[in-house]
Amino acid sequence: MKIEDCLADFQIPQHLHYMDSAATSLIPEPVINSMNEYDRQYRANVGRGMHRLTRVATQKYQDAHDIVSNFIGGMEGTTVFTRNTTEAINMVAAGLDWRPGDRIVTTVMEHHSNLLPWLRLRQKGVKVNILHPGLQGIFEVEAFDRAITADTKLVAISHVSNVLGTVQPIREIAAICKEHGAYLLVDGAQSVPHFSVDAQDMGCDFLCFSGHKMLGPTGTGVLWMKNEVISPFMVGGGTIEDVDIEGDTAEGYTLTAGYKRYEAGTPHISGAIGLAQAVKYLESLGIDAIFRHEEKLTRRLLSGLAGIDNVTVYGPQDTKNRIGVVSFTIDRIHPHEVAYLLDERAAILVRSGDHCCIPLMKYLGLENGTVRASLYLYNTLEEIDLLIEIIEEIARTA
């Protein structure tokens, strides 16, 4: 399928210009249909029972894990389904064995979901070292080389900034982590949907991302682990191999192996099936073709904004090492007002504010945050030209 042919699968772009995919992407009809098919034709719990419906549901649920694992090059690790990136990161923060004096290295660029779980560990005596990039949001590898030491237990970094769109040098950071025996957690919420990501090739220990940013349903996410080194966030139905309350084990139960030990209770079955269908949809278009399409849109947008007086764009001014997440401000106009005017004048939907990155906004000196246009496969050059035109109109009144 060609990218230009996919627009018929999305309802909202037929009457609105949606440019808020970094928050939540739209969802195509085949994904919706796959979830409806589960509820209408074989709705049953998974891993519980032997009747025909539960056998079908269980197989589909297992297949979903395999499809997602293969998509991220993670067949050699463990792929756990979560509610979102936030839950996946918190599972790692809660599941590792922390000791007073352990160190975590992270950055001021992080979404709150990849910052607050580590800050909370200060209560256990864990030290958190926060690195700062250049003003375009680009890190030099040497900064991590200096910060990661023998007592660093984990490094947590976003593959791509959800504010500036910058892509960080994960492979190089992973090599430094390996040298010092530190775990590497990668927040892939903004990378996995937009370009090819191979967890094994990157060299990370944990990869976390969300389904709702990659054409999938809300309430779905992934924690991929190279090795099962964390304890489960919850235990209960489906996580155990045996329960022996009279036995010798301290807990009175034995956990099962693989992803099941981390997925307590009835999971979001239709969501998992929908996420797998979203992956298949992306694969049918070709993730490299999607990246090239978005790169073309981003290049047009950056070029257009650069020529408008009173507009400031944050992050790199070219498409090298960045994706189609473009943050900007207009002098003397609050970002929320800009977003409102874009909606009212041209039905263009963007996000405004701090984007769950308050420390980064303070670092950049942006008290009110930015306007953020985030692009995806269903956006067109015509929409970019319209966005530039309306921004220019708004900026003339500043």
TrEMBL record:
The keyword Transferase applies. One of its GO terms (molecular function) is cysteine desulfurase activity. It holds the Pfam family Aminotran_5. One of its GO terms (biological process) is cysteine metabolic process. It comes from Methanosarcina mazei (Methanosarcina frisia). CDD domains: SufS_like. InterPro entries: Aminotrans_V_dom, Aminotrans_V_PyrdxlP_BS, Cys_dSase_SufS, Cysteine_dSase, PyrdxlP-dep_Trfase, PyrdxlP-dep_Trfase_major, PyrdxlP-dep_Trfase_small. PANTHER family: CYSTEINE DESULFURASE, CYSTEINE DESULFURASE 1, CHLOROPLASTIC. This is cysteine desulfurase. Residues 18-387 form the Aminotransferase class V domain. Belongs to the class-V pyridoxal-phosphate-dependent aminotransferase family. Csd subfamily. It catalyses: (sulfur carrier)-H + L-cysteine = (sulfur carrier)-SH + L-alanine. The keyword Thylakoid does not apply. Its EC number is 2.8.1.7. Its cofactor is pyridoxal 5'-phosphate.
